[in-house]
Design brief:
This protein is an alpha+beta fold. It contains four helices and 14 strands.
């Protein structure tokens, strides 16, 4: 079974326009670009577009995995609670003949938009190429294996798979995470400070001389 792809909150935040809109909620990441195109010009898109690139888990009931509800003071009926304003696929407070309800599953329950999982915790690491002395600092997902981190790094070195990855002189298991390989997290005291780089775990790459490209 294929592993899901993990994203950092920063990666999600980069998709923040109507032409490229992602959101995260309840631990998952969704690409709503096609939904926005489908309803282009509809005022009900406003709350969604305003939250482009953000986490909207606070819109949801964690147990029901559905939009929060409340009792409408006028009708006494249970309605969706949308303080930012009603949005696409949320029914109007009162019956209306101009509201099309033939859309199938509401977008927040439609896994067609799902692109991966939101990392519960990200980490900073330094990758040092011992052949060229090039050093790159990366923010990665704590759930990612070293093979998946390699995919993040390959844009800086297309021959990344031609290297043996080591930490403190010990070969790393590329099928395991940083923690599973015994690599400690950065010192939280220094995280975000000018000295943060010095306290981020370092991974050293040793060239194997086979010029593997990804």
């Amino acid at each position: 079974m294929r592993r899901p792809k993990y994203f950092t909150p920063k990666e999600v935040s980069l998709h923040n326009t109507q032409g490229d809109i992602w959101v995260s909620y309840l631990g998952k990441v969704y690409n709503l670009t096609t939904l926005v195109k489908e309803y282009k010009g509809d005022v009900l898109l406003k709350p969604i577009v305003e939250c482009a690139g953000k986490d909207i888990s606070h819109w949801f009931d964690l147990k029901k995995k559905d939009i929060l509800t409340h009792v409408d003071p006028l009708t006494g009926c249970i309605k969706y609670y949308t303080p930012r304003g009603r949005f696409v696929h949320v029914p109007p407070p009162c019956p209306r003949t101009d509201w099309a309800n033939d859309f199938g599953r509401p977008w927040w329950k439609d896994n067609r938009y799902e692109v991966g999982l939101l990392s519960a915790k990200t980490r900073w690491i330094r990758i040092i190429n011992t052949l060229t002395s090039q050093e790159q600092r990366l923010e990665v997902c704590s759930e990612e294996t070293l093979d998946e981190i390699l995919q993040r790094y390959v844009c800086y070195n297309s021959h990344a798979a031609s290297y043996t990855w080591k930490h403190n002189g010990v070969n790393l298991d590329m099928s395991m995470t940083l923690s599973e390989n015994g690599i400690p997290e950065e010192d939280e005291f220094y995280c975000g400070s000018a000295d943060c780089d010095l306290f981020s775990p370092s991974i050293c790459l040793y060239f194997n001389d086979d010029l593997t490209e990804l």
